Amino acid sequence: MRSLIIAIVLLMIGAAHRADAYPQYQLSHDATCTGCHLSPAGGGVLSENGFVVAEQESWKGGDPEPLHGLSVPSWLRLGGDLRAAAGAVGNGQLGGAAYPMQAELYAVAGARGFTLNLKGGLRRPQEEGSAVHVLWSREHYLMWQQHPNGSEGLYVRAGRFMPVYGLRLAEHVVYTQRFGGEPLYGEAYAGAVEYVTRKVEVHATGFVHDPIASAVEHGDGGALYAEARLGARVAVGAEAKYATDDDLHRTHAGITGKLYLPGLDVLLSAEGEVIHQKLVAGDTVNQLAGYVLATHPLVHAWLLDVGIGHYTQDTRVRGLYRDCLDVNVHWFATSHLEGLVTTRLELLDRGGGPNGGYALLQVHYRL
């Protein structure tokens, strides 16, 4: 127990990186993210069905409840994630690297459809900032749910959270998220009306940037994501986002698609996005981002992801792009413990060959 506490403290010293749900389970396991999560966006605290999936999909199982069965009042739900990685990173020169990635606690408290949702933890210390800056709440919002304890219906949220947009993959390095409409630390103060059923879901969000905490999103605007399930094996979606600040106007538009192939037990997920940036000074830049991911369970408790990404930084400049090949292998050891080998080969613009990449071993513990 003492060694576990020491490990947790060491993890919390470093930077927190977002690690949410695995949308790879959609269609192959459940039609919606709310089938396993309390949030309409997915991620965060699991529902009772989510606990069952976590136990069944793991090698050794075990009590999937928070802290292995901690007793809490019925009006309170708890959770959390600890994640770190180490391995080799190459950017012209190969070298070792270690990353404390995430250290967050979650709480959902309420009754009769009204809940207060909190995510708090640690982040990278800011330059010349006080020690208190390492403490922060990435998300905190009030939510009303039309059908309490259900997984479908109308949701209304207000507070600080990430506007729902795109595939919402856990890996923030995916080009459509890193350069697109859902970047790491892109949370903002927002209000959202969201409708989720097994056949269709719609998420409409208006937001303003956080004027206090350091965040990636500096603009004010809105986001819209809609997805329809065409039977049990196909889903198609459309996305749009607009944000404006004193220097820049950004417009995002794109489509998503998911196809489950039961014979091969493969889920194909894809997203394509156009980003239009207009500087207040007058210059205009158009960008393209795309990602295709194939997911296949190897054997029980093992999951393979293979992804291909493309990003064009400026369509006016020939050759100004980057491509990547990702291969990730997940091992769900217990209902709380996951090991992940994540690798990337990246081809940068004008280089004509591989000039970037990494191979990392991640350890993820769900509280």
Describe the protein's architecture and organization.
The structure is a single chain. The chain has a 16-stranded antiparallel barrel. The protein is mostly beta strands and 367 residues long. The chain has a single domain, classed as Porin (Beta Barrel). It contains three helices and 16 strands. The model is unreliable at 1-19 (pLDDT under 50). Helix content is 7%, strand content 52%.
Order of helices and strands: HHEEEEEHEEEEEEEEEEE
User: Under the CATH scheme, which class?
Assistant: Mainly Beta
Rg of Cα set: 20 Å
What's the pLDDT, averaged over the residues? 89
How many DSSP E strands? Answer: 16
Question: Strand pairing plus helix content: what structural class?
Answer: mainly beta
Strand residue percentage: over 45%
Task: Estimate the global geometry from the Cα principal axes.
Answer: globular
Number of distinct helices: 3
The main β sheet shows up as:
16 strands, antiparallel, barrel
CATH topology, which one?
A: Porin
